[in-house]
Specification:
Blueprint (H helix, E strand, L loop, with lengths): L5 E6 L4 H10 L5 E7 L12 E5 L7 H9 L4 E4 L11 H21 L3 E7 L28 H19 L4 E7 L1 E3 L4 H9 L5 H8 L5 E5 L3 E6 H14 L3 E5 L3 E3 H7 L3 E5 L1 H13 L7 H9 L6 H6 L8 H13 L20
Parallel strand pairs: 1-2, 1-4, 2-3, 4-5, 5-6, 6-10, 7-9, 8-12
Antiparallel strand pairs: 9-11
Helix pairs in contact: 1-7, 2-3, 3-4, 5-12, 6-12, 9-10
Protein name: NAD-dependent epimerase/dehydratase family protein
Pfam families: Epimerase
C-alpha cells in the first residue's frame, strides 16, 4: 500500500518483531524508518530509507532523546520489551514500564499522531471456572494472570495507554495484541531463557526427526502462535489504516493432538497440577528457565478471535501455527543449550525461518 511520504519510528527495532516489521516496511517505498534500539547492528545493510538511532530506555534522558528522534514522524511503534522468565528481576520491569513511560512522554512532546504498542495475548484473563472455552475478541476483559510477571506488566502498560488516551484524545492509539511470536533466528534466545539444560539437544533432534512416539502435554492445552513476518505485516497494515483500539493478531489455534503431530508424535495428556509441580521444581533447581507463570499463561489464556485484523486490515497469516511450531522446533534442534548454533543438525522441514 503506497501513499504520501511518511516517517515511522520503530522503538525496539532490532528484536524479533522489529525484524519482521522492518522487512514489511521495506515493501512500502513511501515510508522512511527511524529504527531505535540500544545497540544498532553493526552489519545493517545500507538503506537510504532506514536510519538507526541508539537510545537506551534505562537512561534518565531517554524521553529527551526519543523526542528528538520522533520529531516530524507520522507514527511511532513501541516494540521494546525485556522478557526474563526466571524470577522478577528489576531490569526487565524498568525497560518495560519505565521504557513505555519514556515513549509516551516523547510521543506527546514530539506531537506524533499515531502510537502503536505491541501488547500481548497475555492481557486476556482466563475463562471463569465452568465457562465454555471460546475464542475471545478485543472486548474480552483485560486482567493479569496471577503469578505471571509478564502478564502483569503488559496489563500495567495498557493501563498507561488508557491514561495517555484520556489526556491526548487526538492521538490514535493502537494496541496490537499478539500471540507468541516465532522466528527461527530467535530460537537460541528462547532455548536459553525457557528451556535450559533440562531439555537436551538429543531430545530436540529426536522430536525434529519424528523419533519420539509419544509426547506428554498438559491436559486440554490449546496454543496459538504467529510468525514474526506475519506480525510485521499486520503492524505495517495498522500503520497504513490507523485503527484505534486493540487488534488481535495470531494464527490458528491447535490442540494437543495437532501440536504433537508437528513432531510426528501422539499426545499423552498429563494433569495440569502435575506438570506445574514438576516445572516449579525444575525451575527452583535452575535446570529449566520457564516459570509457573509462563505455564499458567500457556494453559489459561483464551484463544484469540482475529476477525478484526482480517476484516479491517485485510490481514491473514501466511504461516499457520503448525508451520510456526515446526520452524521453532527445527531451529531449537539446531542450537546448543548455550544458544550457539550446532555444527550438525537434522534436515529442517521446508518453511520460512
Amino acid at each position: 500500500m503506497t501513499g504520501p511520504a511518511r516517517t515511522v519510528v520503530v522503538v525496539g527495532a532490532s528484536g524479533t518483531v522489529g525484524s519482521g516489521l522492518l522487512d514489511a516496511l521495506r515493501e512500502r517505498p513511501d515510508v522512511t524508518v527511524r529504527a531505535v534500539c540500544r545497540h544498532p547492528p553493526e552489519d545493517a545493510p545500507d538503506d537510504p530509507r532506514l536510519t538507526w538511532h541508539p537510545v537506551d530506555l534505562l537512561t534518565a534522558d531517554a524521553a529527551d532523546r526519543l523526542a528528538e528522534v520522533l520529531r516530524g514522524a507520522a507514527a511511532v511503534v513501541h516494540l521494546a520489551w525485556a522478557i526474563q522468565p526466571v524470577g522478577d528481576a528489576g531490569t526487565p520491569r524498568d525497560v518495560d514500564l519505565d521504557g513505555t513511560a519514556a515513549v509516551l512522554d516523547a510521543t506527546d512532546r514530539a506531537g506524533v499522531g499515531h502510537l502503536v504498542f505491541l501488547s500481548s495475548q497475555a492481557v486476556y484473563g482466563p475463562h471463569a471456572p465452568g465457562e465454555p472455552a471460546r475464542p475471545v475478541d478485543e472486548s474480552w476483559p483485560v486482567r493479569a494472570h496471577r503469578g505471571s510477571a509478564y502478564s502483569r506488566d503488559k496489563v500495567a502498560a495498557e493501563a498507561m495507554l488508557d491514561e495517555f488516551e484520556r489526556a491526548h484524545p487526538a492521538v490514535v492509539v493502537t494496541r496490537v495484541r499478539a500471540a507468541l511470536v516465532i522466528r527461527s533466528d530467535s530460537a537460541a534466545r528462547m532455548r536459553r531463557l525457557f528451556l535450559g539444560p533440562a531439555v537436551p539437544s538429543v531430545l530436540l533432534r529426536a522430536l525434529q526427526a519424528g523419533r519420539v512416539p509419544v509426547l506428554p502435554l498438559p491436559a486440554g492445552l490449546v496454543l496459538q502462535l504467529v510468525h514474526a513476518d506475519d506480525l510485521g505485516r499486520a503492524v505495517a497494515a495498522v500503520l497504513d489504516r490507523r485503527p484505534a483500539g486493540a487488534v488481535n493478531v495470531a494464527a490458528d489455534a491447535l490442540d494437543a493432538r495437532a501440536l504433537a503431530a508437528v513432531a510426528g508424535a501422539r499426545p499423552v495428556p498429563v494433569p495440569r497440577p502435575v506438570v506445574r509441580a514438576v516445572l516449579a521444581l525444575l525451575n527452583r533447581l535452575h535446570v529449566l528457565g520457564a516459570t509457573t507463570g509462563w505455564f499458567d499463561l500457556a494453559v489459561d489464556t483464551p484463544v484469540m478471535d482475529t476477525g478484526r485484523a482480517r476484516r479491517e486490515l485485510d490481514w491473514s497469516p501466511a504461516v499457520d501455527t503448525a508451520g510456526a511450531a515446526r520452524i521453532l522446533l527445527d531451529a531449537l534442534a539446531g542450537t546448543d543449550p548455550d544458544g550457539t548454533p550446532e555444527p550438525v543438525s537434522a534436515p529442517a522441514a521446508p518453511g520460512r525461518g
